[in-house]
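During the first year of the project, the team set up a workflow for recording each protein of interest as an amino acid sequence followed immediately by a discrete structure-token representation. This format lets reviewers and collaborators read both layers of information side by side without switching files. As required by the reporting guidelines, we include two representative entries from the current panel. The first entry is reproduced here exactly as it appears in our internal archive.
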Amino acid sequence: MTDEKIMIVEDEKIVALDIKDSLESFGYSVPCMVSTGKDAIEMARIHNPDLILMDVVLKGDMDGIKATEIIHDHCDIPVIYLTAYSDEKTIARAKLTSPFGHILKPFENRELRTNIEIALYKRALEKEKLLENENWINSLLNNIGDAIISTDAQGKVKLVNPLAQALTGYRQEEAFDKPIEEIFRVICEDTGKTVQNPTQKVLNEGAFYGLHDKTVLISRENNHTPIDVIGSPIKNSRNEIMGTIIVFYDISERKDIEKSFLNYSFSGDNIQKTNH
């Protein structure tokens, strides 16, 4: 018995049961079988399987391709399509969802097993590569000379580098997995009102976003630090947003210089007027 869980999405019950028997004979577990796209989305969220076998044609008004698109919006789960249709339009739509395999019905157990093993192997390699990349990125971010906070796609904090820890007052272990709004609190310098956190803007729009000049960071100890902020999305090879990186800079020194310059200018004006 392996640890992998495979969910079956198939609207023909007899076919679904045959696939289930085959999977269990291969040593996989089957947490559930569903026949509609709506149920597939819900069960994927609940069971978080390692792989989904998705029939393209399903009962109801949502086919397997559309269900896969929605699942991929919320969960990073590989999908193998099962279909009796091989027309170019269907294949083109399916390719856009980056499936891990495409099996034409009717199929033999050997073909099913081979596709599953290849998909799970590719997935394992992706995870290994992702872990290596994360370790490399974390090492880089921890040693860079700017304050940086990274989050996942839900806006939960994953990394707070040393300079960001100093400015926010939160250590890495305290901030980890908390909503970024709790760690990175910003207000408008002029109004004192809370400013929309750049993370949500980046997640919603999938693009760079900045806050400048009038933004103030409120630390855990209630220290006020004027900052410039730049947020950017983290995307995978399928252009899906996996998280964000927020880079911010303490601009206190710049503010002091600007203030001194303004005071000097006003003082000069007054002297000039007095001499006249």
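The second entry, processed by the same pipeline in the following quarter, appears below.
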Amino acid sequence: MFSKAFSAAVHGIDGLIVSVEADISDGLPLFDMVGYLGSEVKEARERVRIALKNSGYMLPAKRITVNLSPADIRKEGTAFDLPVAIAILAAFGYIPEESLKDTLIIGELSLNGNINKVNGVLPIVYSAKQQGFLKFIVPKENAREGAVVCGAQTYGVTSLNEVVSLLNNNNQVEPECVDIKELFEHNEMAENIDFSEVAGQMAAKRAIEIAVSGMHNILMIGPPGSGKTMLAKRIPSIMPELTFEESMEISKIYSIAGLMDNKALISKRPFRSPHHTITQTALTGGGRLPKPGEISLAHLGVLFLDELPEFQKNTIEVLRQPLEDKSVTIARLNATYRYPAGFMLVAAMNPCSCGYYPDRNKCNCSINLVKRYLNRISQSLLDRFDICIEALQMNYKELQTEQKQESSDDIRRRVSIAREIQLKRYEGQKIWFNSQLTPRSIKKYCKLEPKEQSLLEEAFIKMNLSARAYHRILKVARTIADLEGSEQIHTKHISEAICYRSMDQKYWGE
């Protein structure tokens, strides 16, 4: 007696279909599982055997062999418990084999036959639907995230007996239904934070608006209490609303990481702010069972590194490649995993260990101490910041001003217009933001007149800029021009972009 059920494993941010084959034959009573299994999957033998017994299924004394195919891919996690149990029941004749066709099953079994939630349901359902599967049986707690995939009939179940009844058409379980439109309509920013709450800092607000418009990386330098963290936390409030495709991509990452919190979909842009004690693995992803790190959890959103020099130098240096590639690749002996990392890097730091340099009335740090503190940030990492802005100390009058500050909605409207210009310009080229321009596309879309070229050449020589810094100035200038609705990059756009590169010369220059 032979039967086959279908399940899936998470590979990167995609689902890999796994065939669960069960064979029942005569011989000494034995329950064996093969197919390059991790320790959690090997332990499924006992969970499945006892769950079947406690669910009322008395299995004859037979030799049971279960194979998880393909056998050259390592199987990890507890999501194979339920499909293994269903394949065995089908082999014994409790379930018609026809009902297992085009049906994908995932879930962890308790010893009493109840079904527990698992991670990675969304990417599994998404990938399986593309491969022709129509029906999905998942734990009840995961049903909403599976139901957001268009055309997928996702059934949320709570027990093994309920699954058997469903596959025998004896249980009128309705597919889970999710109103996608309602998820986005009720999307509100956390804590209702708004840029109107930030007094002053007009230069920093302008720089942030430019950075968000083109998804440029930005570094803020200033004394303690100048509002750097307050500004950074409000950046998501001026970012354009997520599209459904962007939301799906973010949700797949959060589903794998087990951070969905019973949500059907992540409907707002992520803001991740790890502590400076974070390890390289936690930042980039990986581990014994590879999972996405903070840079992937910040995909299409903001990764905020507060007190940048306090991070371990080796830790922040690993950001250099993901910032260029917009993805991170984790190589293991058994497989290679790729996670997206298209985040906007926002960093804040003090100019010295006490925080008040170059104000010698407050700062007592020696020049060597200041340099040693600043040199914790390498020039190669500093080059990857498109914009570097100084957050100045606020005075009493600025804090007490009754002048109305611009709201996040006002700024977001301008940002959205600039984003629409970019989407239209780069349509069909897999470029969505000015920050993604390659050297070849820069020549095409950032053409300069002789006057602008002369200004940029002078700055390149005087400021001793690298080739990367040169390209980033052009990208920022392109964004500034887009904010003004200008097709051509003018001198004022180049000048402002150069100003955002001069701050690192002030602190890190000779």
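For the second entry, the following points were noted during internal review. The longest strand covers residues 14-25. The chain has a mean pLDDT of 90. Both points are flagged for discussion at the upcoming steering committee meeting.
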